[in-house]
Amino acid sequence: MNQQSDDWPQWWNEVRRQKFGSETPPRRYEITVPSISAHTWVILDAQTGRLIWGKNEHSNREIASITKTMTAYVTIKICEQLKIDPTQVTVSISEYAIQIGGTSSNLQEGDTLTLLDLLHGLMLPSGNDSAQAIAENFGVYLYFQSKYFQQKIDSIDNENNTIHVNNPAQYFVAEMNSTAQKLGLSNTYFTNPHGLANRLNRSTAYDVSKLCYYAMKLPLFAQIVRTKEYSCTITNLGQTRILKWENTNKLLEQGFSGIKTGVTNDAGPCLASHFITRKHSYILVVLNCNSKEQRWVDSCRLIDWVTDIYEKQ
């Protein structure tokens, strides 16, 4: 694909001025964009948040487990606001959480683990059970903070002075959508915390890249998504066991530093990734690639291309 000057992103104006003394290059000068399988993709400057290049980057579609990027972002931001130490807070796993289908972190009902462990279970093996557990636990807190608290208390046990909240995950998902609007992700909407197929759970390559741009500014998020392997101790009814998780992002072996994989039948194979060179850092998002293996190839091809042209500025 050859792009004439009228189609080039704004940042290329400076390159044109440096090369040709004006923003209009000689007619024969063109830039060739690599052909990849992804139906929609984008490259973002991870330092400035500036769009470098993309194809159909505003096309709205399902994003599968890349959804968990927002789940982690919201969780970490709440921890920052409340000064919660994820290594000191424990989370219990519900029966419903372990019944969520798809990719799993192999949790069991009644398991207790730290929030830090659970965040790794969310982002490394892409555990839908971890996503649901996070949404349920933080959803209770968000419910108590909501303006609907007084009107929508589901039941009160006067004898034990306890409050039961039905479907607390919905309040967490509402916070995900509120956060998306605050970050300017105008073409993004979430219906669940894990990304399992739902035609209303949608975003764009551009919105995903902006979310990753903000998420990578959180040290804990950046640390988790670049972790290749992680093990933790789980407690359940006085018994303990060790779980080990491997990151589904195979590009960590090739110099990339996060962020999240995703795949469903409707979304297709997807990948949001982060790459650092001596001069720049980049966020790449490829959605609906031809295969799970091809998303690695597509991402490597894009990073080779963009570092070749962008770092000549």
Describe this protein with a few key phrases:
single chain; 313 residues; alpha+beta; 5-stranded antiparallel beta sheet; two-stranded antiparallel ribbon; 9 helices; globular; Peptidase S11 D-alanyl-D-alanine carboxypeptidase A N-terminal domain-containing protein; serine-type D-Ala-D-Ala carboxypeptidase activity
Structural summary, described in words:
This protein is an alpha+beta fold. It is 34% helix and 22% strand. It has helices at 12-20, 68-82, 95-98, 115-123, 128-145, 169-182, 205-215, 219-225, 292-310; strands at residues 2-3, 31-32, 40-45, 51-55, 61-62, 90-92, 112-114, 155-157, 162-164, 202-203, 229-236, 239-246, 256-262, 270-276, 281-287. The strands form six sheets. It has a five-stranded antiparallel β-sheet with strand order 4-3-15-14-13, with helices on both faces. Strands 1-2 form a two-stranded antiparallel ribbon. Strands 5-10 form a two-stranded antiparallel sheet. Helix 4 (115-123) packs across helix 5 (128-145) and helix 5 crosses helix 6. The longest helix is centred in the C-terminal third of the chain and has 19 residues, at 292-310. It is globular, with a radius of gyration of 21 Å.
**How do the helices and strands follow one another from N- to C-terminus?**
EHEEEEHEHEHHEEHEHHEEEEEH
Sheet-strand content, in percent, reads 15-25%
Radius of gyration: 21 Å
Question: What is the CA-CA span between the terminal residues?
Answer: 21 Å
Strand order of the largest sheet: 4-3-15-14-13
Mean pLDDT: 88
Organism: Paramecium sonneborni
Protein name: Peptidase S11 D-alanyl-D-alanine carboxypeptidase A N-terminal domain-containing protein
GO molecular function: serine-type D-Ala-D-Ala carboxypeptidase activity
GO biological process, one term: proteolysis
